[in-house]
Design goal:
Elements: E1 3-8, H1 16-21, E2 26-31, H2 41-49, E3 53-58, H3 69-85, E4 94-97, H4 107-121, E5 126-130, H5 132-140, E6 146-150, E7 164-173, E8 176-183
Helix pairs in contact: 3-4
Length: about 200
């Protein structure tokens, strides 16, 4: 059964009631070199306590995945440290963003980058975010176990292997600019922290 969710970067506090009002049951959040947009342990706790599953994506810059294996390894290490600090269980995957219209010449570089990430995380924990042809190429070359496809740069195609599909951008929910997503797989990399008392984020 598909599930609806949202993803967002910057915020000044989350409104879980607003998220719930649009049917969201999960949230995908960022890890990066920019602390202002990153998931925190406090936010992960608030989302978990409100009944939302959480998944994470690493993105430092749109074309970072073209930088090859050393960049993938470095980013995976940084992402793993941040994810652990948020309480993410060690076995859960991390998506890596390819946030541009990648051409044919970019795709082998993206695979190299993801292989670098796999050298740190293990192949089973590597996911990719991108348009249809990027996600398809990465699945076809066994470079990712998880796929989060965006409708952008996809020309109406959807790779049915992708666990997540981003189908709308720039929707304001609870005062936050969000994108809307659908999970088509029971396991799309989600996790949740054990219940605690609510805290402000």
């Amino acid at each position: 059964m598909p599930r609806e969710g949202i993803d967002y970067a910057w915020h000044n506090g989350v409104d879980t009631d607003a998220f719930r009002s649009v049917g969201a049951t999960f949230v995908v959040r960022y890890l990066s070199h920019d602390p202002r947009k990153n998931l925190s342990a406090a936010e992960a706790q608030v989302l978990s306590d409100a009944g939302f599953d959480v998944a994470v994506v690493w993105e430092s810059s749109a074309r970072r995945a073209c930088a090859g294996q050393p960049a993938g390894a470095a980013d995976a290490h940084a992402a793993a440290v941040q994810a652990k600090a948020c309480g993410m269980p060690a076995a859960r995957p991390i998506y890596f963003g390819v946030d541009f219209d990648a051409g044919d010449g970019d795709k082998p570089k993206i695979v190299d980058y993801l292989q670098g990430a796999a050298s740190v995380l293990g192949a089973k924990r590597v996911g990719v975010y991108g348009g249809y042809w990027v996600v398809k190429y990465c699945f076809d070359h066994s470079a990712a176990r998880f796929g989060w496809q965006t409708y952008a740069w996809s020309a109406g195609h959807r790779d049915r292997r992708a666990q997540l599909y981003q189908h709308e951008n720039g929707v304001t929910i609870g005062g936050i600019s969000c994108d809307r997503d659908t999970a088509y797989a029971a396991d799309f990399g989600q996790w949740r922290l054990p219940p605690q008392c609510s805290v402000d984020v």
